[in-house]
Amino acid sequence: MNIRRFWVLFLTGFLTLQLLVFGPAQAETFRVPFFGDPKTGPFSYQYEVLQLAIEHAEGDHQLIFDDFGDASVSRIMDLMDRNSIDVMFAGYTPEREARFSQIPIPLTRGILGYRVFAIRPETQAALKTINSVEELKHHCIGSGSDWLDTQVLEANGFCVETANYQNLWRMLIHERFDLLNRGVHEVHAELGLAEDAGLDVALDDSLLLAYPMDFFIYVRKDDTIRQEILTEGLQNAYESGAFMRHFYSNQAIARSLRAIRDPNRKVFRIENPFLSDQVKAIPDRYWEDR
Q1: Under 8 Å between Cβ of 88 and 76
Q2: Which tens digits make up the pLDDT trace of 6-19?
Q3: 141-196 confidence digits (pLDDT tens)
Q4: Residue 21, exposed/middle/buried by CB under 10 A (0-12, 13-18, 19+)?
Q5: What is the mean pLDDT of each run of 10 residues along the chain (290 residues)?
Q6: Nearest-angstrom CA–CA distance, 197 and 36
Q7: What pLDDT is attached to residue 256?
Q8: Which structural domains are found in the chain, ordered by start?
Q9: Reading across the β-sheet that carries 101-102, which strands appear in turn?
Q10: CB-based contacts of 268: which residues, under 8 Å, 6+ apart?
Q11: Positive or negative, the Cα torsion across 243, 249, 252, 253?
């Protein structure tokens, strides 16, 4: 074999190896389940963060939205295990962290842990008289069957009624509980949908319940390529300032920050005993209130 042919074969093999090793990360698709309209629905902010992540990662990646109707989070997790979807976002739980690869950057900078209450309008007067967590515990709270919020509330001694998300609003109207536990950043869009459905509901304007909590992005444990893309993309978005610009410009987030800082709201802080050491170790720069 002459020298020229040797180098041609060597370079051809080297480039082929580079494509095999690095090629998939250059143009990945991300199949993600959606609930409502990804651009205007209750979870539009989370979909925007996903888009931000892939735009700030190296390569030409694409989100593909799959409609799974009213599938529960448990159902979505099963779909990911079966490779029917590639990525999901959900509120933190130890089970999800153990079952999947959790991208270690909270999506709402901890805003999810600030909880407000959808109520029946006639409940508002009684809530304005509450001055302590113990007084708040006299009111039963509705919460999702598979939400970590439910376990946090129960661990702190609250009365909790559980159901899937869609049923909780009807249960509130039918007085199965007094308060529907919702994230401060998501409740306004949800109230609009509830009112469109003919439900007579309101937002309590006097209380906030706060504990450490957030949404995270999850991929399968063996999907190291997408894990690296999403982690790199979110880190790059922070480094460039794009994440914080998007965060503060989002209407729901801006409204949430005003509510959190409202001097007329009483903020009751409780413990979240379910956080892992990994979540506790996430740097302060990724949290709004640390």
Answers
A1: yes
A2: 444 544 454 445 44
A3: 999 988 899 999 999 999 999 998 889 999 999 999 999 999 998 888 888 888 88
A4: exposed
A5: 52 48 66 77 86 94 86 89 94 95 97 96 96 97 91 97 92 96 89 89 96 96 96 97 96 92 95 96 92
A6: 14
A7: 93
A8: 26-110+214-240 (3.40.190.10), 113-210 (3.40.190.10)
A9: 88-91, 215-219, 101-102
A10: 132, 133, 136, 207, 208, 209, 210
A11: positive
- How far apart, in Å, do the first and last CA atoms of the chain sit? 65
What is the C-alpha to C-alpha distance for residues 125 and 198, in angstroms, rounded to an integer?
Answer: 23
CA 137 to CA 209: how far, in whole Å?
11
Amino acid letter, 260 = I
DSSP three-state, residue 194: helix
Type of residue at 252: A
Helix or strand (DSSP H, E) at 275: none
Cα–Cα distances in angstroms (integers) from residue 179 to residues 138, 212, 240, in the given order: 11, 20, 40
| pTM listed for this prediction | 0.82
